[in-house]
Amino acid sequence: MEKSLAIAEVLAYVRQNRTPLAELPPEAIPHDEADAYRVQDALHNLLSPHFGTQVGYKIGCTSAVMQQYLGIDHPCAGGLYMGSVHASGASLRYADYVHVGVECEIAVRLAHDLTSSGEPFTAATVAPAIEAYFPAIEIVDDRYADWRGMDPRALIADDFFAAGCVLGKGVAPGNAPDLLSVTGRAVVNGVEIGRGTGADVLGHPHHALAWLANHLAAQGKTLRAGEFVLTGSLVQTAWLNAGDEVWMELSGLGSVAVDFKA
């Protein structure tokens, strides 16, 4: 636990001071993914006083385009904090990030806890827990001198690039389209830079939610009512410049916008 806290303190310093992190020395890299998530837990405790209580999770690497881009062939989770969840139309400071990027996502908010019964969660068993779907922009931050040289275990420990999100208006499940047919378009400064569909997210965003519920259950944790989950990007990450304006549309769910002022 002492090692986990020591690594978490380094990552928390980087997050709070926006200092690019060079590759961690071998002795500071978590032993395995389970160890990486223990460091992440310690990091959440250190960051909550600064960024607000944890209000949910992001899931990364749920689409082929992102798995190929990051070179990681399985989903990874990170935390979301109250102070980094914004409403559509937000204007954020570019300087508040090391190198900010955006991703196009389908988010969900839970109506009730997903308590483990001992059986694995499936797409079918998590669906009734969804209170609403949201068009979402995940905000990610490249907090590293060279992220391609970072060990994936270190990326997981550091919330897997998570830096918040921007949410559009919620859509009740009864009013939502078939998520497989939802097309997401990512537009930066009026130019479309990527598109994908709900089917790209592990075959269906509900599969991503089930993965997260099982991942947390294995740690003795539970997804709680009211928490948000970003189910994974439909497009490759777009890294931004100061002054960029971002607009994303998810057909049948609506649109969401944010700009990053200089």
From TrEMBL:
Segments forming a coiled coil: none
Domain Fumarylacetoacetase-like C-terminal: 85-257
Pfam family, one: FAA_hydrolase
InterPro entries associated with the record: Fumarylacetoacetase-like_C, Fumarylacetoacetase_C_sf, Hydratase-Decarb/MhpD_sf
Keyword Lyase: yes
UniProt keyword annotations, A-Z: Lyase
Protein name: Hydratase
Organism: Tardiphaga alba
